[in-house]
Amino acid sequence: EIVLTQSPGTLSLSPGERATLSCRASQSVSSSYLAWYQQKPGQAPRLLIYGASSRATGIPDRFSGSGSGTDFTLTISRLEPEDFAVYYCQQYGSSRMYTFGQGTKLEIK
Amino acid sequence: EVQLVESGGGLVQPGGSLRLSCSASGFTFSSYAMHWVRQAPGKGLEYVSAISSNGGSTYYADSVKGRFTISRDNSKNTLYLQMSSLRAEDTAVYYCVKTAFSGYYFDYWGQGTLVTVSS
After folding, report:
1. Contact assessment for residue B84 and residue B70, using Cβ atoms and an 8 Å cutoff
2. Which residues of A touch B46 (CB under 8 A)?
3. What is the DSSP string of B4-24?
4. HSE-up of A21 (CA within 13 Å, CB side)?
5. Which residues in chain B are contacts of A10 at CB distance < 8 A?
6. Which residues of A fall within a CB distance of 8 Å from B42?
7. Do residues A19 and A8 lie in contact, with contact meaning Cβ atoms separated by under 8 Å?
8. Which residue, A66, A73, A64, is CA-closest to A104?
9. How far apart, in whole angstroms, are the C-alpha atoms of residue A74 and residue A87?
10. Quick one: which of A34, A99, A33, A107 has its CA closest to A65?
11. Phi, then psi, of A25 in degrees rounded to 5
12. Alpha carbon A24 to its chain's center
């Protein structure tokens, strides 16, 4: 089973700043199989990025994804107040197994 | 518009059973694999179970294998999760989730239903 480790656990930034969130896999992951989600308090997760770098429908272009192999990154170029949330990476693996990272909380500094 | 509406959550005693339902609309339900993902209070996301589009294949996380059963009724556009031998650690919000056509990620989530296992 592939384990996804997200860092940092908590990221404190101010609106307008750039956020860089990391997702590291214990084994190589196909870029096609890596996605990112945003979850706000009391809400279900929302798909942001799929295929490591493709934005989902309706996602602003300040969100971007990159990476390959075992290292993937979600970047938010200029933080808006509504971007402060928890972010999860997710991978699809063998035997139709899906795993999530433990999450990064992006909080207002 | 895709909608996934879960129901059936509630308070149940340890060792008890509960059946969750998820009513789907806005897409061709019978064409997509469906999933359940849960989230314990204050914790992260945990993948629980999957079922293929025709119901012929199922998958379970080790933590629920032998206790949970996923099923679907394509004529009713409804997904189910039968949970038995419930434990305190099964307490969570359970989300019904639609897979993208590729099957590699989840493009729509329901609002979730809370299951609390406690005496």
Report:
1. no
2. 100
3. EEEE--EEE-TT--EEEEEEE
4. 36
5. none
6. none
7. no
8. A73
9. 9
10. A34
11. -100, 145
12. 11
State the residue for tokens 């909608």.
Answer: B3
Q: Which two tokens stand for residue A100?
A: 């999530």
B83 close to B19: Cβ distance less than 8 angstroms = yes
Q: Tell me whether residues B44 and A100 touch, CB distance under 8 A.
A: yes
pLDDT tens per residue across all 119 residues of chain B: 999 999 999 999 999 999 999 999 999 999 999 999 999 999 999 999 999 999 999 999 999 999 999 999 999 999 999 999 999 999 999 999 999 988 899 999 999 999 999 99
A84-108 pLDDT, tens digit each: 999 999 999 877 689 999 999 999 9
Q: Which among B44, B95, B106 is the nearest to A103, CB-wise?
A: B44
Any residues with CB less than 8 A from the CB of A105 and at least 6 apart, and which? A9, A10, A11, A85, A86
Rounded to the nearest angstrom, the gap between the alpha carbon of residue A80 and the centroid of all alpha carbons in its chain is: 16
Tokens of A59: 């996602």
**Residue linked to tokens 């404190």:** A12
Q: Which pLDDT tens digits describe chain A residue by residue (109 residues)? A: 889 999 999 999 999 999 999 999 999 999 889 999 999 999 999 999 999 999 999 999 999 999 999 999 999 999 999 999 999 999 998 776 899 999 999 999 9
- CA pair distance B57, A46, nearest whole angstrom: 26
Q: In one letter, which amino acid is A45?
A: P
